[in-house]
Amino acid sequence: MKNPILWLHGDALGPSNPALLSHPGQPAVFVFDRELLRGNSPTTADPQGAAEPVSLKRIGFLYECLLELPVTLRQGDVASEVLRFAQAHGADGIVTSSSVDPRVGSICRTLEQSLPVVQLEPTPFVELEEGLNLGRFSRYWRQAEREVWADWAPQA
Q: Domains in the chain, please, with CATH?
């Protein structure tokens, strides 16, 4: 790929995003996923299967993270918007970060029908031995918090 665009998603928002690091200066896009925001996505379902919309706090958090990045913001169907962005920039491929979220994998497969997609591995925030619970951030954080603070000790 000589002229890729970068697709940023909610699993790797920050200056250490591997797509941003590996292709500085390339156009980047983040799409607020309309279906996910409304709670119409399996990734927002609770164990009983009832979907819930993404909270305003989470939307605000995502937006604040995005304000610090060189990224164009869009909303709608993610695959469609990423492909429109790629076409507008004459891109020959898409670079993104890999994710354990099955929705990201599904979107990548859709994108690959039109353009090559390269998924780069982000540096893990924390290594967890137990299975991940990605249904809600608070559940994930309860798992991750122990590891994040395990090696931290105030300096005397």
A: 4-123 (3.40.50.620), 127-156 (no CATH)
Sequence-ordered list of residues with C-beta below 8 angstroms from that of 8, at least 6 positions apart, any chain: 17, 19, 20, 28, 29, 30, 66, 69, 71, 96, 97
pTM, entire model: 0.76
Residue 23 has pLDDT above 50, yes or no: yes
Q: Contact at 8 Å (CB) between 27 and 89?
A: yes
Asked whether the beta carbons of 143 and 149 are under 8 A apart, the reply is no
**Half-sphere exposure (CA, 13 Å, Cβ side) for 96?**
27
pLDDT(42) > 90: no
Question: In 3D, which of 109, 57, 115, 55 has the Cα closest to residue 85?
Answer: 115
Distance from C-alpha of 114 to C-alpha of 91, rounded to nearest angstrom: 11
Segments of the chain assigned E as strands? 4-8, 28-33, 72-76, 93-97, 117-120
